[in-house]
Hints:
By secondary structure, the protein is mainly alpha-helical. 70% of the residues lie in helices and 1% in strands. Belongs to the nucleotide-sugar transporter family. SLC35B subfamily.
Amino acid sequence: xxxxxxxxxxxxxxxxxxxxxxxxxxxxxxxxxxxxxxxxxxxxxxxxxxxxxxxxxxxxxxxxxxxxxxxxxxxxxxxxxxxxxxxxxxxxxxxxxxxxxxxxxxxxxxxxxxxxxxxxxxxxxxxxxxxxxxxxxxxxxxxxxxxxxxxxxxxxxxxxxxxxxxxxxxxxxxxxxxxxxxxxxxxxxxxxxxxxxxxxxxxxxxxxxxxxxxxxxxxxxxxxxxxxxxxxxxxxxxxxxxxxxxxxxxxxxxxxxxxxxxxxxxxxxxxxxxxxxxxxxxxxxxxxxxxxxxxxxxxxxxxxxxxxxxxxxxxxxxxxxxxxxxxxxxxxxxxxxxxxxxxxxxxxxxxxxxxxxxxxxxxxxxxxxxxxxxxxxxxxxxxxxxxxxxxxxxxxxxxxxxxxxxxxxxxxxxxxxxxxxxxxxxxxxxx
Length: 431
């Protein structure tokens, strides 16, 4: 009875091989691996009954035998209302609206509006994310204050506002007739929740600049999986930029200086959480690509995924009793309340800016804007929170972003060239 808590309390230290911040040692229940399994159990308590119900309705051939007031709801959730679209040129997004008879000044204004919206939303989101997860609230001369520890509550806050914004947008604007079975959104929703949770938790163990660079370098594992599993072929510039990204990240992570602080030390737990983020995030995007073969808009996708995200997170929080505890923390610290609300606002409206930018200017322009955002986010984090970056580390960051811009440039050139290929030839697949 007494040994189990002691063993679990020692797990974080054994896993990381180094001392953990005192705030993380309050109890073994705060260890991220324990919290992960507790959250997963909460999601399973919703997923398993839902899966059994779906199987029951399918076995009963409910479309033929079902009647009553619940029939439209069950039909929409389990079976959908339209057949999947087989012929769709772009499975991820609707065709980009080409500007017709639009002045250059107007297009420049739109581009500046999109860039400013994306930068303001996600730079503010990044700064607040690090503030909420790494700093204390209510600190005074006699009281050290307390940290907010429940990453799942922050995910819930983000999703409930995104659900509201997407719902209002769908209600006020004309959208395609929805045909996908609603339950299919739950897969992307679950992986999206877990990727966001890993992203928040990782900040307890690694610095924000390290997290940004790791996210920027996820193209490397994607290429490796494509080569090993799908036998994909890549151009020489893809291997070159992947090698440059790998070299830049290695330079940053291995650089050390005399003023290096504990917050910049990459721990084993942080690496595992970042790997979890990349895996879950990759699944989310691939599953959403498959869902886009149904006729739907990106905002409908945003609404559907966030419906299940709210259901999963609020269910898990209520089962753990963490919802009331987090609300009490908000009541004690008004500053945290403001930060959490603003964090959610930036996340929700940032998604709308993503859809609008890609629709107006295409994926290449969007990628350039977001790559610049990552560079600015690292700079802001170092200025505001005092992260020390050595000369070698700074060169590593520069190498990563040069490689990312080269990748965008080369890809745009390849797309232009592929349009001129003869009908019998096909371009090499890209990551």
